[in-house]
Amino acid sequence: MVTEDPEERRTYADGSRAPQYGSPDFSLSVPDLSGDDSALARHSAIDYELHRKSESWALKAFQAATPGLTFLLTRFERRWLRRDALAGLAVASYLVPQVMAYSAIVGVPPVTGLWTALVAMLVYAVMGGSRVLSVGPESTIALLAGLAIAPLARDAAGHTDPAKIATLAAALSLIVGFWCLAARVFRLGVIADLLSQPLLVGYLAGAAVLMVVSQLGKLTRTEISGDTLIEQMEDFARQVETTHLATLWVALGTFAVIIVLHWLRPRWPAVLIGVAAAMIGFATFGWGQLGVKVVGDVPAGIPTPSIPLISIGELKALLVVGLGVAVMAYSDNMLIARGFPAPALPGERPSEAEVDPQSELVALGGVHVVAGLIGGYPMSSSGSRTALALASGARTQVYSLVASAVVVLVLVVAGPVLEWMPQAALGAVVLYAASKLVQLGEFKRLWRFRRREFALAVITLFGTVFYGILAGVGLAIALSLLEMGVRLARPHDAVLGRVPGLAGMHDVEDYPNAETLPGLVIYRFEAPLFFANVGELRRRVQRVVDKETAAYPEDPPRWFLLNVEANTEVDITAADGLRELQGDLAAQGILLGLVRLKRDLYEPLRRAGVVDLIGEEMLFPTLPVAEAAYVAWAGTHPRHRLA
């Protein structure tokens, strides 16, 4: 038997000290199997390549920036091509009218949506980490961009310049790409985690309201002005009597066709059929003579890359807006990528199909940069198109390449046909998209789960509607962080005791028959220790001591053991608070100890002098060891009767 000297275990390999739990009188026995011929005989260690030689940095950077292309070149199988091709055709039939409608939200020509979708699908197929995510124009991001751009595109008389809107939209796309790439440099992929489920539910519902209001003019052929929802609704109320009935009926008819088809035949491209029906009706029944407006001239081909020119003032304004758009677009991408994982490949671990948050920043940045150079606008990803791709059997981004080919065909050949597309029909598509954003079931679920979560969703909804998307989301994030801070500052706590017939130690409030040792209090504070809660910890500890003393005046607390298994972090204020806690308890004749102390917490407490103040002998690795140590100590200090 080989016995390890305990003195040699007081430092780690990096030279830092290790906690010396309780009494130092222990030894570690290691069996000597050097002469054993049994199956447990040792064999030679191998090289596990834990420190592999570095590869070419250029190759590593290229592979990191192009995970989609790397997958297609190394792992794509020809047998997947048929399903991917069919999925690409299905997605394209849904995408073409959808992205043209979203262009109307931004305020740019409908064909711009096709350009944007084309480059988005091509670039993401190369740079994206998800095998099935459909990246391109999306309703809420389009609305956010449109609301931000509109005030900057108005002249002194209040008139909007369409060419200016297109330039600002392209510039905003470049700025969003810049923020995404900057976030990748600083590894800020975790920013998406700030958008909690209640926030997203409220944000999407609020965005749906704004989308409907933004299309009222196209649905009724009226000119609605105003920067806020209230102003727009007031202006609409003044003009509602001038509604162009033929335009309204085209919009409502298209919307009804889409809804009914989606209900009866969910797999059919309801949006494409609805818009096609409106185009046929326009050409057949002469709706143009009734005053129904159409998209008009659609430029053929694809624009040449160029850098949009804007003023310094516009750049400053778009930098702020672009940051908000980047946060929302990236969050959409990550949430949809997680919500629609790619089908597992043979022999593939689930973790291999997960999307890397940092790589997605690069992919989204690349998509926006290219889109901005060809005159596109900001985008994210579409949950409906991604779901359609999966339902159609897509396995890889080859389906996006097929959909891109269809878009090219539309741009080159179908321009004259698209000229007959009624603007009211595109407005109906936006109405349909808005109806899919309101998740009443999620509001009910939040109400049942916790009222605070429901309230957060409602506040986000009203904040988005009345103060705009950025302000609403900013308010919701602030409230989320505040609520999280309150939970950390006032966490759950527990006094631990034994329960007859049940192994381990448990919260005594959960078990009426729980028992504790006289003179010993084991207390758990379930949150990281920091400046906002260390004062609360001291107050709660004193309250527990007072309660114990009042309940058992003949056996008041002698040891107070703080179970720190949940206290994974500590700042200097909290460390000072522990020093003060030790002083408060010492003044009452009570020893403070720490149980289940991890190295990550031990090191900062040692540097702050807390360990030396408490004493290494009052540090314990487990609860049973701490109990046994107290019983042994109480036996040598017979002041109180033990049970």
Proportion of residues in extended strands = 5-15%
Structural class: alpha/beta
What general outline do the C-alpha atoms trace?
Answer: elongated
Mean pLDDT, to the nearest integer, reads 85
Number of strands: 10
Largest sheet: 6 strands, mixed
> Could you tell me how far the N terminus lies from the C terminus, measured between alpha carbons in angstroms?
39 Å
Share of residues in helices = 55-70%
Structure overview:
57% of the residues lie in helices and 6% in strands. It is an alpha/beta fold and 643 residues long. The protein folds into 2 domains: 60-345 and 353-485, no CATH class; 490-636, 2-Layer Sandwich (Transcription Regulator spoIIAA). The strands form 3 sheets. Strands 6-5-7-8-9-10 form a 6-stranded mixed beta sheet. A two-stranded antiparallel sheet has the order 1-2. It has a two-stranded antiparallel sheet with strand order 3-4. A hairpin with a 2-residue loop joins strand 5 (493-499) and strand 6. Helix 3 (81-106) packs across helix 15 (398-413). It is elongated.
